[in-house]
Amino acid sequence: MQVPAPFEYRRVSTVDEAVALLYRLGDTARLVAGGHSLLPMMKLRLANFEYLIDINELHDELGYVRAEPGLIRIGAMTRHRELRESAELAAAFPVFGDAERVIADPLVRNRGTLGGSLCQADPSEDLSAVCTTLDASCVIHGMDGERVVSMEDFHRGPYETAVGDAEILTEVRFPVRPRGSSAYETVERRAGDWAVVSAGAAVWLDEAGLIADARVGLAAVGPHTAGIPGIAEALRGQRPAEELWARAGDIAAEACDPVTDRRGSAAYKRHLARELTMRVLRRSVARIDAHIGGHIDGQEV
Amino acid sequence: MQVTMTVNGEEVTRDIEGRLLLVHFLRDHLQLTGTHWGCDTSNCGTCVVWLDGEPVKSCTVLAAMAGGHEVRTVEGLEQNGELDPVQRGFIECHGLQCGFCTPGMMMTARALLDANPDPSDEEIREAISGQICRCTGYATIVRSIRWAAAEQAGTRTTAEEPGRTVASTSGSAS
Ligand SMILES: Cc1cc2nc3c(=O)[nH]c(=O)nc-3n(C[C@H](O)[C@H](O)[C@H](O)COP(=O)(O)OP(=O)(O)OC[C@H]3O[C@@H](n4cnc5c(N)ncnc54)[C@H](O)[C@@H]3O)c2cc1C
Ligand code: FES
Ligand code: FES
């Protein structure tokens, strides 16, 4: 029977309360959101804390998807299921719907949160790849107010983020730029399993139909969840074409660092990184052509 | 610590350890052993109960987290001495063999039918995709849930094979 080591359970109902309690208890305390990453780790005794601070009551304050001109804000306590069901999010970023169909299973998605996914910083976490792809930034609250960090600065390494001991992630912000769309693909061994490899892409075109910007994020292929700058460099200013996707796929395969495990060999995962990168870039552009994505309040931005 | 929650409509209060998982609270503290406990690793779904109306894996929720909230277990499916249509569907269509996965399957099925009274096979399979059955091969579980859907809608006809009476495969699977 797997049970966590003993700890003291605390519950908070506002962000300020959470920060004050974290400040008082220091690194002996940990926040728990959906608990679907943290509790399994505590059951395996890979993580032990003296205090667990339950932030589920913050769902009222931090569970939302808000669309504004040029910007989507998502609260850290928004659950996978809510991300999947948000029509606003689907209209702006189809990549979310693609990813949320394959993250875990419907039961896990009823509990797991965006904030927990990003703060867990597991290199296999799909939403980290999605947020990287969309050039998101993270709002972190502490005793001295809030600060905003890019996804690149947010993830410090596997299971390590920019969130300090007495801080809480409250919101993730996504810029919505014109003529853009996005897509996500994953290969998993069976329903509900973690990805063998996943890839997300977002592409923005200029008025002449050339690529203004393109971003690719991979999951499960090494310690870095950060984007692959080489792909953006290779694609900017080019006209969308199959050869271009192939080149991007090669860059992705080269940039990643997968390991052989029971989900597949390193060589197979590299192959997937290449193939999935091509597919998501191709699909992102097809979606721009079909006017899917890049909408806020029913309007193309 | 003390925890108070509503389980199947009844308020219960117990002294527990903070680390107690909801599945063990239900089984060992409330003797509600209908909720099963299987993999322990959030994978099998036999421990599924409702938390505030949504099916969750109770081996991955602390009992303390359910404090002040509403829990519904398989014991709460039956209403006024009458089995839920989902329970009857599982009986009619042979939705179980050993029965180990059944409580979790039925709780998910009930939640699905509340949200979507006429699900397609694909939607049913998606809904139970986080749950494992080692006996049935799932076909009879899907059929049982369809039987319940038809029973509720009043479209089931006894002349036909149980569960084969609704042609509901046209639903829009997203
Ligand atoms: C069976 C199973 C399969 C899964 N499959 C996948 C999959 O295929 N793809 C995938 O991406 N994920 C998968 N997951 C993980 C799932 O998405 C989790 O829900 C998610 O990783 C964590 O969210 P949570 O809210 O449960 O976080 P928690 O477990 O509550 O927290 C995780 C970490 O983040 C910290 N934290 C949480 N919220 C905050 C905050 N607001 N500010 C600061 N720190 C915070 C916690 O202290 C903890 O360290 C799976 C999980 C399970 C159990
Ligand atoms: S015991 Fe909870 S999912 Fe298996
Ligand atoms: S009936 Fe035996 S596991 Fe499903």
From TrEMBL, chain A:
Keywords: FAD, Flavoprotein, Oxidoreductase. Gene3D superfamilies: 3.30.465.10, CO dehydrogenase flavoprotein, C-terminal domain, Uridine Diphospho-n-acetylenolpyruvylglucosamine Reductase, domain 2. This is Xanthine dehydrogenase family protein subunit M. PROSITE patterns: FAD_PCMH. Residues 2-179 form the FAD-binding PCMH-type domain. The keyword Flavoprotein applies. It holds the Pfam family FAD_binding_5.
UniProtKB/TrEMBL annotation, chain B:
The keyword Transport does not apply. It comes from the Bacteria. Keywords: 2Fe-2S, Iron, Iron-sulfur, Metal-binding, Oxidoreductase. Signal peptide: none annotated. This is (2Fe-2S)-binding protein. The lineage of its organism: Bacteria, Bacillati, Actinomycetota, Actinomycetes, Kitasatosporales. Gene3D superfamilies: 3.10.20.30, [2Fe-2S]-binding domain (1.10.150.120). Pfam families: Fer2, Fer2_2. Residues 1-77 form the 2Fe-2S ferredoxin-type domain. Residues 153-174 are annotated as: Disordered. InterPro entries: 2Fe-2S-bd, 2Fe-2S-bd_dom_sf, 2Fe-2S_ferredoxin-like_sf, 2Fe-2S_ferredoxin-type, Beta-grasp_dom_sf, Diverse_Oxidoreductases.
